[in-house]
Structure formats: C-alpha cells, structure tokens
Amino acid sequence: MRSLAQIALLALLAAATASPLSAASYIDAPRRKSGLWEIKVSSAQMQGGHVMQQCVDQKTDDLMKPGMEKMSCSKNETRKEGDKLVTESVCKIDDTTVTTRAVLTGRFDSAYKADVKSTYEPPMHGMRESASVVEARWLGPCKAGQKPGDVSMPGMPEGMPNMEELMKKTPRKQ
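Above: the chain's sequence. Below: its structure in token form.
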C-alpha cells in the first residue's frame, strides 16, 4: 500500500505536469506548446498550494496516455462543452475508486486552467473528496540543461525524477 504522501506527490506530478487532455479518446485534444511551463496547483488539502515547472515536448506531453491506458479505469472520457473541455474518469487506486471530473479552459499554446474535483470511495487515508485548481502558463524555451519531462519544484532537491522515467517506474494495475 502506498503512503498518502507518495499518492499525493504522484497525483500532483501526474495531474499537473502531463497534459490533462492527453487521455482523450474521441476528440482532437490540443497539445501544450513545447517549452517550459509553470504550473500552479492549489487546493484545501495543500496549504499554500504548489508551483512547479516542467519542460515538455510533444513526446512528453503525450506521456500520460500510455499510463492512463494501463490504469484500472472503467471510465476515461473527454468531450467539448462549448469553449470548455470536460474530462471524467473512474479509476481504482489500491482499494479505492476515484471518480474525477475536470473542466478545462484556456489555450494550450500559452495558458490554461483546470478545475478538478474528485471523490474517493471508500475514503483514501480519511479523504472522501478533493478539489483543486491547476493554472499553467508557458514561460518560453526550456532552460539550458533541461530535457523534456524534467520537473522542478521550489524546496525540492535537485535531480527530481524526470516524468518519463517516473512513469516507467510507477507500477500500474492491469
């Protein structure tokens, strides 16, 4: 069983750094512009929120699609509703069913916002529901020495795992 800190870090990194639309199966989902993105995640569960930066290219921006396909999800859909994109999923994490709905607005070549709400049944580590806001903006080209998938967060040690490497190592339920 994973600890709450491990689940929270993986969820934060996965949700915030990968394109939230990459798992879309029946719409032409936009891709983020290649380069350095600043991503701010705020929620009641994360006091003060978190800010991170990730270097992306088209390969790493599609990174979550294979990971999502390997997860035990009974629902994983994305659809357009006017000028918004709505994603809905129902997935198993350990013994908990996580139901998530995200509403995304903005442009994926410069900035976007996602309002994400999840419920956990049975509660995961005492948490029944969560709500977060992800705000991302393109900063420009990746920094010298960065490779696509690299993530940096203030207060975290240098050498945080590259998202591509992290997703290869993260076990998924079949």
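The longest helix spans residues 4-17.
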